[in-house]
Amino acid sequence: MNTLTETPSTADNRSALYTLVSVWFFWSFVAASNGILIPLFKAKFGLSQTQAQYIDFAFYAAYFVGSVLYLLVSASLKTDILNRIGYKNGIIYGLLISAVGTLMFYPAAELKSYALLLSGLFIVGLGFSLQQTATQPFMIALGDPATGAQRINLGGAVNNLGGTIGPTIVSLAIFGSIAADAATNATVESVKVPYLIVGALFLGLALFFRLSKLPRITNDEEVEVGTGVLKYPQLVLGMIAIFVYVGVEVTIGSNLGEYLAKTRQLTSSQISPFVSLFWGSMMIGRWTASIPNFDFSLNTRRILTVIVPFVAFGIVLGVAAVGGSDVSVMYPYAICVVAVIAAFFASAGKPVRTLLVFTGFGGVAMLIGLLTTGDIALYAFISGGLFCSVLWPSIFSLGTAGLGKYTNQGSAYLIMMILGGAIIPVVQGKLADTVGIHMSYVVALVCFAYLFFFGIRVEQVLRKQGLDFDKDVVTKAGH
Q1: Which are the contacts of 53, defined by CB distance < 8 A and separation ≥ 6?
Q2: DSSP string, 108-133
Q3: I need a surface site. Which of 66, 177, 276, 327 has the fewest CB within 10 A?
């Protein structure tokens, strides 16, 4: 199992946790900003919707390739890489790799090369792959594994703050405004300076981690390098679930620009408020899910479960207003916020129940979107962000439960399946080119259906192994 080489105080662990969550901001900042690049490059390079989705394909395929490289190098060295270099150094190296990728945007834009721009995004994703492989088991090891999902949710809360403000900042940096003619006047070269700045921020964060005092994580069991971890059915089920989860999260947001273009005739410079609303929905959910990380009484937690989602929603509206958008059109989305509050009370912080409740709500939302039009359909699709928001930590903690010496390998295999973010959006893009963008969201409905099945099946598997996370959370987390 992963253990700390020292026995730091609870305060030290919290300090380490807060340091680790800083890197989560940039993962979503860049990923969400891809939603701005997709319609821009589609217009400037004359791409089909399928071709435009190669942006997400390049970015998320890098997670798969990065994880495969991680496993291959570990096998050749006959030791787990992160156990040799440490989680902290793994994060630093990942940040440096991502910085190289963002810096490639400058020559790529100068040459007006779509292939080179995709290559830059691919390298950014390689760095993110290493960062995520190191960060998440690190966070789980900072406390009781049964409450690991709660710590990852805290990272997710910061992650989606980046996802909320990323599209607005990048859109303003590229287009200068959200006016309809801003997209027309923009060029491919407009991405150069914004991504140079992002690269500089990656370098600064790498320096911050180098100077930080994080506890060293080691594996106190003999690590067996290879595919032995695949004998655990919870990991195999979790791999498919991560593939599907990342796929549905990315495909809803990435195809949103095309949906708005077809149904509301918006240009690429005008979609950022709605892209931000989708990623802001992730923030609403994750901020609420992170409440148990703080030492509040049960009654205070319940009150905050009602207040925090609306505070986060207010921030989303504020970001859109600063960007010059008319936020009054988003007020009806408050109904969806009420729905996610109900989902939190129903799930009670239990990983398996959370999966079932949130994927059930997500599936219903997609069905409503498919069967309606106008604002109801738009906000039903966007609300997928609310119901995706807390799935990752539940899937990750359940998929790695009981792996022991295979935990690092299991983490790498799960990160590998972020490949779903590369494949599923392209599948929806192809379907959109065939049956139309509206009906293509049936892909999201199918994804939520599998995730609901995963929740049922993984609980059965873990109980056979003597693990019951839902029961442990009730006892240990105070719910």
Answers
A1: 38, 254, 255, 425, 426, 428, 429
A2: HHHHT-HHHHHHHHHHHHHHHHHHHH
A3: 177
